[in-house]
Design a protein that fits this description.
The protein is of the alpha+beta class. The chain is 33% helix and 27% strand. The N and C termini lie far apart (74 Å).
Length: 500
């Protein structure tokens, strides 16, 4: 990896009288430019020029001390030198040219922010960054480590191009096979029976009294078998996730293809919207192109993963040691994911209903709580729902985004997926998960403990549609075929809505 940087320091006054001192400073800057690098490696000043109140520099470097780091390292000692002897300050810096070379076996066709051009020649990628008077990469971007993130993103793209790491999946446990009492598609049967109907949006269903009663029974089971025995307290989490939340939670790295964006109106003034309203009155059609002009930029999206907004309640706070572990849950609204072409029945939907279970404490407390939850789930799936199911370690979303896979990289953190077989097609569906997220959320939202010990957290989402898919695909809609324990919990099924 090679870097070539041409930049300038802007000074507060003409520094011609300091040229000899500046020359001596740059001539002896080796320890600054090569600190932390192997002997003979690091950054070098290959040219410089003092012109009035500006110092032009050319820095070439390797991967051990990147050129932009070298430039920032020089700024403070140069400022101190000029200020002490000549009362001249370093006002800022400008980037005039920045090129990076990276070894690669092939070209890539990805657009990368702040990169104007990518060429592939003789086994190397040549990146020309977008700098100069009209460019976008300047002092602020250098200070905010944008070049380092460009390189990280490039490496991620290259790894992806070469196949990269595949997601980890490792079977942990599987129940004894249970002969299915039903082999049809449960969604089709529910539609025929009038239990559900398509909603007006894609991947959305309207649940009739019978299906809703099944959902409420699942909720009752969760309350009686998990929430109440383990002492979880109910909260209400917001269902609109702002960019600030997603940046802190880590979802902003890659959530975009799967979210429903939320855009506020530019103004609530009826006069601003009169044209839209009048168009509808005349045509009975909503003028979407005109609406698009009158809405503002997205402020975030509809609830994607239920727990991130909870962390705003704790953000920046210090928690007393005796209060931990903190255990809470939310069941106050829907979650939304754009599933593209993958929607199918109630198994894979854009709008779904979940109970989100969240806990945090020390590493030991979080891992212990996870084991308690696993025991509860096993009791429910084995003794109440009597499913044919299994569990597996999988790569959690936050590790997948960082290119990490495998149990050895989890160090106690990770995700357990619960999967049930669907007799009508022989596939396994994930119908429950449990994640130990390590320090990710407490660090992202700056939550600390009184003792100073690092905090961990975990979350587990109970998806009502997925539970229904697992149960009804194996047992069918005939209540006589449902497990005895589940029949006790569900009681009498409500009367559905009839149509002429």
């Amino acid at each position: 990896m090679k870097f070539h940087l041409e930049a300038s320091f802007r000074l507060s006054a003409d520094a011609e009288k300091a040229e000899a001192v500046v020359s001596d400073f740059f001539g002896n800057a080796g320890p600054i430019l090569q600190k932390g690098a192997p002997v003979g490696q690091g950054a070098k000043i290959t040219a410089w020029k003092l012109a009035g109140s500006k110092i032009d520099l050319v820095i070439d470097s390797d991967r051990f001390v990147r050129a932009h780091d070298a430039l920032l390292r020089l700024r403070r000692p140069l400022s101190e030198l000029l200020g002490k002897e000549f009362r001249i300050g370093v006002r800022g810096l400008d980037v005039n040219k920045f090129e990076i070379e990276v070894e690669s076996e092939r070209a890539i066709n990805h657009k990368i922010p702040y990169v104007r051009e990518i060429r592939f020649e003789d086994g190397r990628l040549h990146l020309s960054l977008d700098v100069g008077p009209k460019g976008t990469l300047g002092q602020s971007e250098m200070e905010n480590r944008i070049p380092d993130r460009i390189i990280s993103l490039l490496e991620e793209k290259l790894q992806s191009s070469y196949g990269g790491k595949t997601e980890h999946w490792e079977l942990l446990w599987e129940s004894a096979p249970r002969p299915p009492k039903f082999t049809g598609d449960p969604t089709e049967e529910m539609q025929k029976a009038g239990w559900i109907k398509h909603g007006s949006s894609r991947g959305q269903w309207i649940y009739g009294p019978e299906a809703t009663h099944v959902f409420r029974t699942f909720e009752k089971i969760v309350l009686e078998e998990i929430v109440e025995p383990l002492g979880y307290r109910e909260m209400i989490f917001p269902k609109l996730d702002t960019w600030d939340v997603w940046k802190k939670s880590g979802h902003a790295q890659g959530v975009y293809p799967e979210i429903y964006f939320v855009c506020p109106p530019k103004t609530r003034d009826p006069a601003f919207w009169e044209e839209v309203m009048d168009y509808y009155k005349v045509t009975h059609e909503v003028p979407l192109e005109l609406v698009k002009e009158k809405i503002d930029l997205p402020i975030g999206g509809m609830c994607y993963a239920q727990c991130p907004t909870f962390w705003g309640f704790l953000q920046g706070m210090t928690l007393p040691s005796e209060e931990m572990p903190i255990t809470v849950f939310d069941r106050s609204g829907t979650s939304h994911r754009y599933e593209s072409g993958g929607i199918h029945g109630i198994e894979r939907v854009d709008e779904f209903h979940r109970i989100e279970i969240v806990w945090l404490g020390t590493r030991e407390q979080v891992l212990a709580e996870a084991e308690k939850l696993k025991a509860c789930y096993k009791h429910i799936f084995e003794d109440i729902l009597e499913l044919h199911w299994r569990t597996a370690w999988v790569t959690p979303w936050f590790m997948a985004q960082e290119g990490k896979t495998g149990l050895s990289e989890m160090s106690g953190a990770g995700t357990v997926d619960y999967e049930a077989v669907l007799p009508y097609n022989g596939n396994w569906i994930e119908f429950q998960n449990l994640s130990v997220n390590g320090e990710k959320y407490p660090k992202g939202f700056t939550v600390k403990s009184q003792s100073g010990e690092a905090l961990w957290s975990g979350c587990s989402g109970v998806g009502l549609e997925r539970w229904a898919s697992a149960l009804l695909s194996q047992k069918g809609l005939d209540t006589a075929n449902w497990p005895e324990e589940f029949q006790k919990r569900i009681g009498k099924m409500p009367k559905g809505i009839r149509f002429l």
